Amino acid sequence: MQLRPEPRTQPAVSAPAPAQPYRARVDPDGVASIVSEDLFEQLLLHRNDPACLAHGFYTYEAFIAACDSFPDFAGKDLSDEARKREVAAFLGQTSHETTGGWPDAPDGRYAWGYCYKEELNAVADYCVPNQEWPCAPGKKYFGRGPIQLSYNYNYGPAGDAIDVDLLHYPELVASDPVISFRTALWFWMTPRDNKPSCHAVITGQWTPTPADDAAGRVPGYGVITNIINGGLECGIGPDPRVEDRIGFYKRYCDVFGIAYGDNLDCNNQKPFNFGASAWLAAQ
After folding, report:
1. Cα–Cα dist 143/256, whole Å
2. The total number of structural domains that make up the chain
3. What is the pLDDT of residues 199-240, one digit of tens each?
4. Residue 33 falls within a domain, yes or no?
5. Which cysteine pairs are joined by S-S bonds (predicted)?
6. Which residues of the chain have pLDDT under 50?
7. Which pTM does this prediction carry?
8. Mind giving me the DSSP string for 8-75?
9. In terms of residue numbers, what domain contains 244?
10. 255 part of a folded domain
11. In this structure, is residue 132 part of a structural domain?
């Protein structure tokens, strides 16, 4: 998957078809083989609570359909434990991005991931000048979906990768649940700049460079936080946002019955660069 495909002539823009209900494909080797619908409900326990603005949006069927688009995600070539750990890590990070939890929430704060599907009270349009990914008139590119995709320079390549015109229809990330999950999985699976992919890190396929070693970036869940938002959260000692990401991850690992692994935080890691909200800005 190319990070920045060559510019191409855009076809005439037509309105996308309305989102249709999705049915999970029965695949004995896919993510559905390790995450049943009952387990999905247990993992994201309160996402459909009436207090969550995204209730009813993030469905099991949409999650499985999106995973089918990225067969290497928790892929069948990994061990059973490694597959489960990748799902736990993905849900851990995205649950932090969409959390509705609070300290004394029912079942604990880490049972309240996936409460939101778009940024609250967004005022800015998140449009910046970009020749390759120009903003569409009147469109806003604020945070949407599990990874809270933001800015035209992220919507453009994400849509290009999943073959959806997200520059003209960014609202699809908050109205079509499969597209929403697919944008998050695209971010998860795609290396960029001097960063590895989150997938490569959690599956043990990433080998730190000498620069990574010097920056204290060691294999483990903490590097994923660094990839996503290291510019704000890493290298500053203990941080409640980092702990929140870890808390979700640990809960999901516990549900799966697997070990957490080492190096869960990024407290002593130097950031890669600017974090998820601006990771293409320097391209």
Report:
1. 29
2. 1
3. 999 999 999 999 999 999 999 999 999 999 999 999 999 999
4. yes
5. 52-115, 127-135, 234-266
6. 1-14, 20, 24, 274-283
7. 0.89
8. -PPPPP-PPPPP--------TTSGGGTS-HHHHHHHTTTTTSTTSTTTTTS-HHHHHHHHHT-TTTT-
9. 24-116+177-283
10. yes
11. no
